[in-house]
Amino acid sequence: MKNKISRRSFLAAAAVSAAALAVTGCDAKTSKKAVTDITVWNYYNGDQLESFNRLVSTFNETIGKAKGIRVSGSSQGTVNDLEANVMDAAEGKVGSAEMPTIFAAYADTAYKLDQMGMVVDLKDYLTEDEKAAFVPGYITEGDFDGSGSIKIFPVAKSTELMFFNDTDWQRFAKETFVRYGALSTMEGVTAVAEQYYNWSGGKALFGRDALANYMLVGAKQLGCEIFEVHNGKMTLHFDHDVVRKLWDNYYVPLVKGYFAANGRFRSDDVKTGALLGCVGSCASATFFPKQVMPGDDQVHDIEMKVLPAPRFAGSEKVAVQQGAGMVVTTGTEDEINGAVTFLKWFTEPQNNIAFAVESGYLPVTTAANDMDAIRASGLELTDNMEQTLSGAVKTVRENELYTPTAFADGNAARRILEYSMGDQASADRDTVLERIAAGQSAEAATAEFLTDDYFEAWYQATLAQLQQYEG
Predict the structure, then answer these.
(1) β-strand 304-308 against 160-165: which pairing, if any?
(2) Is 40 within 8 Å of 100 (Cβ atoms)?
(3) Which residues pair with 207 in a beta bridge?
(4) pTM of structure
(5) DSSP of 413-471, one letter per residue?
(6) How many CA atoms lie within 13 A of 344 on its CB side?
(7) Cα 102 from Cα 152, distance rounded (Å)
(8) Which pLDDT tens digit goes with each residue over 363-406?
(9) d(C-alpha 338, C-alpha 329), whole Å
């Protein structure tokens, strides 16, 4: 009996020891495979979001798995939705989500968060060779104080192009002998739009997204930097003659009906047949319609034509640099290293080109921002994407790229440029249409809005609004 009990005791003790060893082994295994979670908030949607999510999955299954990094992406909706959600999280508002590890941002939003001490400077996480690989200007966009800091990691950029419904343009071109070359300048666009208006019986030719880009880049082309920024302080240069030229080539043709802005985006207006062409981000190419649907029974297929964005006659070759970069927020060293590992992987040429081909965004390194490299990637290029990327790459290579330097309340100042002229033009066009419907001639209906005094009143009011953001 004694031996039997002794054996039971031994077996029980062995079982306890084995269980203890198993628990220890599990703990060791878990510790070995501890994962650093990286959250990325973005504003992508449609093809752009699908492409980004595919790349995230590829990273997680390869480099991420090997290094214990797991990335999860989350679209926050529009750029404005993303900014609002980031600010709510940063301020700890009730009901807001936790701050993400990484979020997509333009310079003004990144600047706000940096002023709150919530942005990581990544300059020490990249070698000099890694920094030099980026297209000049992309890596310095987040250097707010001129010290060489990197507060915004570039992952995908864009510039503006002009997109046209080539199918319906050809009817107009055949009968009027107007060619696309006439649209190379803003003055040319205005003149052709008038011709199209008369030919079509009162239809608009052209519209554009992002009026702030038109104002800022148009002024820069004409030798004026509206927002000059040094050390976070803005000096305003709202040159009267320059702004008048901007007015004459947007407000005036819109009030006359040569331009239009009806839908949320100008590609929406092309889809309804309200416009033939528009200027927008190269990343908007994936949203350009394949059909025009002016009415339920009037649907027809169209082909897209991509052209350089027009600039002012005789002006400097300046094009907009846009596209949000990625901001890494303060966290543990593991989180920061994990975020940087993912961002470096995402901007490797083969990965960045894959995103570009599917989204219309531009790769951010010099090696990848090349059509030979893009074609050699083996990825399928649709005709539309071939046109878009070719046009965008050429724009980047042949122009000075411009984006305003961030400053306090820069978003608010930019919104004035975005809406002041556009809203005024749309409201006044509505009044013109009401007057025409009441029996006035088009000339009489627009006369009030085309005087020097009317421009001067708008100019002075807008100038006063912008001046509050100086200094």
Answers:
(1) antiparallel
(2) yes
(3) 278
(4) 0.86
(5) HHHHHHHHHHHHHHHHHHHHHHHHHTT--HHHHHHGGGSHHHHHHHHHHHHHHHHTT--
(6) 16
(7) 10
(8) 999 999 999 999 999 999 999 999 999 999 999 999 999 999 99
(9) 12
Q: How many residues are given for the chain?
A: 471
174/166 Cα distance (integer angstroms): 12
- Which residue type does 221 have? Q
Count each helix (H run) and each strand (E run) in the chain, helices first: 19, 14
Measured CA to CA in angstroms, residue 402 lies from 20, 141, 225, 297, 316 at distances of: 64, 10, 10, 44, 12
Residue corresponding to tokens 């508002």: 93
**What's the pLDDT at 296?**
67
DSSP secondary structure code for residue 282 in this structure? G
CA angle 80, 267, 418 (to 5 degrees): 45
Residues with Cβ within 8 Å of 399's Cβ and at least 6 positions away in sequence, in order, are: 159, 317, 318, 319
**Closest to 469 (Cα-Cα) out of 155, 172, 229, 167:** 229
CA distance 346 to 340: 10
Question: Residue 467 and residue 471: Cα distance in Å, rounded?
Answer: 9
8 A C-beta contact, residue 160 and residue 280: yes
Going by their DSSP bridges, the two strands 227-230 and 233-236 should be labelled as antiparallel
Enumerate the H helices of 33-176 as residue ranges.
47-61, 63-67, 79-91, 107-115, 128-132, 166-176
The closest of 386, 339, 326, 396 to 366, measured between CA atoms, is 396
pLDDT digit string (tens) for 255-296? 999 999 999 999 999 999 999 999 999 999 989 999 999 876
Given a contact cutoff of 8 angstroms between Cβ atoms, the answer to whether 392 and 385 are in contact is: no
